[in-house]
Sequence to fold (605 residues):
Amino acid sequence: MESEGIQISSSRTARASTLFYVTALLAFLQTNTHVHGLLKAPEYDFIIVGGGAAGCVLANRLSEVPDWNVLLIEAGGEENFIQDIPLIPFVLEYTPADWKYRTERSNSSCFGSKFGLCHWPRGRVLGGTTVLNYMIYSRGIRADYDGWEALGNTGWGYDDILPYFLKSEHMTIPSLANDTKYHSTKGELVITYPIHRTKLAEAFINAGLQRGYNYVDYNAESEIGYSYLQTTIKDARRWSAYRAFLEPVRTRKNLHVATHSLVTKVLIDENTRVAYGVEYKKWGLLPVQARARKEVILSAGAINSPQLLMLSGIGPSDHLQEVQIKVIQDSKVGYNLQDHVTLGNLYFTLNQSVGLRFDNIFDDLVGVVEYFLKRDGILTIPGGTEAFGFENVGDFGNGEQTIELLFAASTLANLHLAWHSWGARTDILFESYLPLHNKDAFTIFPILIRPYSRGRILLKNKNPCTHPLIDANYFSDRRDIEIIIKGIRRASELTKTDALQKYGAELYRKTILPCKDHEFDSDAFWECNIRYMTFTIFHPVGTCKMGNDSDPDAVVDRALRVRGVKQLRVSDASIMPTVPSGHTMAPVYMIAEKTADLIKADWLK
Fold:
C-alpha cells in the first residue's frame, strides 16, 4: 500500500508538472500570437512600459504614425465599470488594481498607521493611477515650470508646456471653455464640474469668499483663491487615461497591448550601451522578450520606473553592487523623491445634515439608484471631495509658500472602509473617532504642495517581483510641519465665517491618545497629530530627475533620454525636478504629450 501511495503521489506530481509547463507554453503562445514564432523575439518600433496616464497617451500618439509598430505593456488588467464610479476610489485599494505599496517605518511620520507604514496606492491596471485617484485636474502654476527651466531644462518653461496641456484637454465647463488661452475643447480628456454638490461645499466656497479671496480658475493665471474641483469625469463616470486615450484606438493594427505582463528588466547591450528591448512575465509565468527597433520608453511611474532602471543596471553603483546587480550606468536613480502630504484628521462637526453621511442604508441605496438610473446623486462626487482653496501662508526661506485646503463633505471616520484604506490604526479610530460615525462632520486637508523634504526609492533585492523600498522621509525638514500648521490655522479661520457658522461648524475637540499631553490646538498638539495621522495625496515624483549636463543628480536629459544609455527614455512623474503646486495627473498628461512630439521629431526627420 505504501508503494502504491508513492506511485499515486508521483503520478499526481508528474501531471501537475505537465499542467504547469503546458500552461506556461500556452501563455507564451498567447503573448506571441501576433509575432514571428517561438524562436525569435517579437520586434516593435517602440515598447512602452506602463499603461498609466503617460503610457496611454504615448500609445495613442505614437501609433498615429501608421508605419510604427507600438507595444504597450501593463502589469495589471482591464478597467471595469465599478472602478468608474467617482465616489469610491478608496474601495479600489482593496482590489488587484492597486500595487499596495507601503512606505518604510519612519522616525518622523506615519506613527498612527498600521505598523508605522503609510499606504501608497498606485494603479496596477490599464489607466494606471487615473483609475484609483480622485480625478482632480490641477496643473500647478507658471512658477513651477519656469522653475524647471531655470534649472537648465530648456523647453520646459510654462509658455513651452502650456500647449501640451491644451492638446489633451476637452473643457466642458461653459464659463471656462471660452478662455482659449488657458483651455481647449479639442482634446480627448474631458474636464467638468461634478454633477452633484452638497450644500456644505457651497458653504466652504462662500467661506473663502467671505475671507476676501476670489472664486478662481486655478488652471489659469493664478491658483490663489477658491473653486469647485475641475475633474476628469464624463457622463458621471471616471474618465481615466484608458477611457480617454487608449480605448478609442485599441483596434489600430499597429498598436499591441499586453496586459498582466510584468516587465522585469530593460535589455541593454553592454558594449554599445543601446537598449534593444525588454523582458517580461505574462501572468507571472515564463519570461518573454520583446525587441525595440527604435526605443524603449519607461512610463511606469515614480516607483516602478526607477525600480526597473536599477534592476537593469542603471542606478547608484554602490547600491546596485549591494544587491548584486551588474552596473551599466552609475546614476542617481531613486533619489529626489517628493510627495504631497497632509494631516488626515482635521475634522469639524455640524449641527445640520448638509454634507455626506454613510450610516443610513436607505439613503445609500437611493444614491445608488440615482446613479445608475439618472447618472446623478452622491456617487458622482469624486471621492467625497468637492472644492478647494489655495492660500499663501508666508516665506519659509525659499519664497512665498502656498497651502492647498482640500474640502471633503464627510470624514474618514464616518466610513470605516475609507479609514482602513487610509491604513490608519483601528485603535485610534475606536478611541477617538467612533462618535463621528453617525454625526454630521467634514474634513479639510491642509496639503503641503511645495515640500522641502526629499525621500528615496531603493531595491530590497534583485527580484523584480519584490516591492522596492520606499523611504518617504516626510517631515525630515521641519519647515514642512510649520507650513501644514499654518494651513490648519487657515482652515480654522474658514469655519468662523458666517457661511459655515450657519451650520454650526466647530473643530472636533477629541484628541488621539498619543497627543493628549499637549495643549489642545497648540502648535505642539498639531505637530503630534501631523506625525501620527500622516496622509499622502498620492503624488510621488522626481525619482528619475530631469536635468542638464551639469546637474550630477539628473537621470534623464531635457529630451527625457536616459543618460549613458541610447534608445531609452523615461516619460512619467519620475522625471519632474520638483513637484508642481497642483495635483500631478494633469502634468503627467502634459509630459507624455511633449514626449511624443520629442520622439516624432527624432525619428520622423
